[in-house]
Amino acid sequence: MTQPRMTSIPSAIAAAADYMPYAHERLDDNAWAYIASGAGDEITFRANRAVFDDLALNPRVLADVRSGNTALTLFGKRFAHPILLAPVAYQRLVHPDGELASVQAAAALEAGMIVSTLASHTLEDIARHAGAPLWFQLYVQPDRGFTRELVRRAEAAGYSALVVTVDAPIAGIRNREQLVRFQLPEGIAPVNLCGMETPAPIPGAKSQVFDMLMAHAPTWKDIDDLRAATRLPLIVKGILRPDDAERALAAGADGVVVSNHGGRTLDSQP
Ligand SMILES: Cc1cc2nc3c(=O)[nH]c(=O)nc-3n(C[C@H](O)[C@H](O)[C@H](O)COP(=O)(O)O)c2cc1C
To answer: Model-level pTM?
Structure first.
C-alpha cells in the first residue's frame, strides 16, 4: 500500500494555527498587514479569538458512535461536514495560485468554499477548478446593473448560493494597514470588477461620510432587489442583531451568517 504523500507539509506544522508563524516569516509586511489585522484598535479582533477559545464542549460519554458522521444538507447541497471556507479577498497576495489553490484544497477535504467578489482570479476560473459546492459572496457595487451582472455570472458559472455581505459598506479602517501604507501589488486586482465605472459624485453632497463615502452603500431595498433577481438561495452575511436577522428572513433571505467580519470592518462589536 502506498503511503499518502505528506512531504509538502513542513514538519513544524501539525495544526492550522501552526501556519500562522510560518506564513508571517514568508509574507512581506504589506501582505501580512492585510491578512492578519483588524479594524481600529483591534478590540473586536482580539476578543473574537478569546471568546472562541472560551467555548467548551460538553461531551456525552459511552454513546455508540459507529456509522456516525457529520454530513448535512445545506440549501439543497450535501456537505460531508459543516465547513466552508469563508470568503477571503485577494488570495494571490499570499500565493500566485491564490483562490485556484484554495478551491482545490477545499475539494480535497470535501469542504465548500465561498468565493469573494474581491477574488484575485475570476469567479469563472475558480469554478472551473472546483470539486465541491461553491457559493458566491457578493459585495453590492455602486453600479447596481454591474451588481446584477455579477449575480448572473455566478449563476452561469454554477455557484449554488449567493452570500451578500452587508457589514462592510465601506472598507474597514485598519491601523496596521495604514502603518505599512498597504496597497495591492502590481498584478493583483479585483478582477471580477474589471470594467466597472466609478460612480459620479452626488450633487450637493454635505457629509463626506454619509453623502460621499457611503452614498452607494447597500440598503434593505438591495436585499429585496436581489431576492427578486435570483433564484439562488440568498444568505445575508454580517448580521449581529436578532431584529436584523428577522428582517433579513422577512425580506426573503434563506439564511444569515452571524459574523463581525473577523473584527476587520468596525471595531468594538460583540
Ligand atoms: C484577509 C481577509 C479577507 C477577507 N475578505 C472578505 C471578503 O472579501 N468578503 C467577505 O464577506 N468577508 C471577508 N472576510 C471576512 C471573513 O469572511 C470572515 O467573516 C472572517 O474571517 C471572520 O470569520 P466569521 O465570519 O466566521 O466569524 C475576510 C477576512 C480576512 C481575514
So the answer is: 0.95
pLDDT for 7: 61
Total domains, the chain: 1
pLDDT in tens, 111-145: 999 999 999 999 999 999 999 899 999 999 999 99
Beta-carbon contacts of residue 159 (< 8 Å; ≥ 6 apart)? 115, 123, 127, 134, 135, 136, 232
Atom nearest to 87 CA in ligand 1? 17
Residue 151: give its domain's CATH number: 3.20.20.70
Closest ligand 1 atom to residue 118 Cα is 8
- SS3 (DSSP) at 115: strand
Q: What is the pLDDT of residues 49-98, one digit of tens each?
A: 999 999 999 999 999 999 999 999 999 999 999 999 999 999 999 999 99
Per the annotation, the verdict on 81 as an active-site residue is no
Question: How many whole angstroms from 49 Cα to the centroid of ligand 1?
Answer: 14
Question: Does a structural domain hold residue 223?
Answer: yes
Q: How far apart are CA 108 and CA 96, in angstroms?
A: 19
* Structural domain harbouring 151: 17-48+71-263
Pocket probe mutation, ligand 1, options 99, 120, 261, max atoms within 8 Å of Cβ:
261
